[in-house]
Amino acid sequence: MTFKLPALPYAYDALAPHMSAETLEYHHDKHHQAYVDQGNKLAGAGTKYEGKSIEDICKAAFDAKDQPVINNIGQHFNHMHFWNWMKKDGGGSKLPGSIEKLVADYGGLEKVRADFIEAGKGQFGSGWAWLTIKDGRLAVAKTPNGENPLMHGASPILGCDVWEHSYYIDYRNQRPKYLETWFDNLINWEYVEAMASGKV
Ligand code: MN3
Predict the structure, then answer these.
(1) Cα(147) to centroid of ligand 1, in Å?
(2) Separation of 76 CA from ligand 1 center, angstroms?
(3) Distance from the alpha carbon of residue 69 to the mean position of ligand 1, in angstroms
(4) Residue 105 C-alpha to ligand 1 middle, in angstroms?
């Protein structure tokens, strides 16, 4: 398959002031583009990964310890969804029904929020904080660099990029403040539900 940079699903300034146009321009146009370009060289047409879905490439690369593909295809998968996990006027406590049930079974939204933020704070260096479904239940996870929960036997339904390129322009070194703001103001819970139900 040929990987392509998807267009942002909103204007560059749509998420301000929580995430600036400058951050989105660099993050989407430069960082994500670089993962796509490298991904095509490493796992596109003519490679042993040709014909596999991106999800299967993530798993196969991890099993084979193919670090360049883990990095670049992992990051392409993560960012494709990251843009959609955010929206203008997101966050809040009104969750779609199926997500509300998963969250209630976990212990409530405040516990999910606290554990998710803790996962993002606790990821030393670059990586991601996640909500996943594992064995039918909601779980919180963190991964380093370009890894994602697919590589660890779980299905990601929400992920927050905690690489500095995602927050340094807007929050400088304050990763906890970025995570709190992101959770409270940017999450697109409808997209979380779509992923949880297998619609995307
Ligand atoms: Mn990123």
Answers:
(1) 12
(2) 9
(3) 16
(4) 30
Q: Report CA(63)–ligand 1 centroid distance (Å).
A: 23
Fold of 97-196: minor pseudopilin epsh fold (3.55.40)
| CA atoms in the 13 A half-sphere facing the CB of 6 | 12
- Alpha-carbon gap, residue 60 to 94, rounded angstroms: 37
Is the model's pTM score more than 0.85? Answer: yes
pLDDT at 138 over 90: yes
Domains 21-82 and 97-196 share a fold: no
Boundaries of every domain in the chain? 21-82, 97-196
pLDDT at 35: 98
* CA 82 – ligand 1 centroid, Å: 8
Q: How far is the CA of 163 from the centre of ligand 1 (A)?
A: 6
- Residues in the 5 Å CB sphere of ion ligand 1: 161, 163
Please report which residue ranges of 85-132 form alpha helices under DSSP H: 97-106, 109-122
Q: Where are the alpha helices (DSSP H) in 2-108?
A: 21-24, 33-43, 54-63, 67-84, 97-106
Confidence of residue 1 (pLDDT cuts 50, 70, 90): confident
Instruction: Say which CATH architecture domain 21-82 belongs to.
Output: Orthogonal Bundle (1.10)
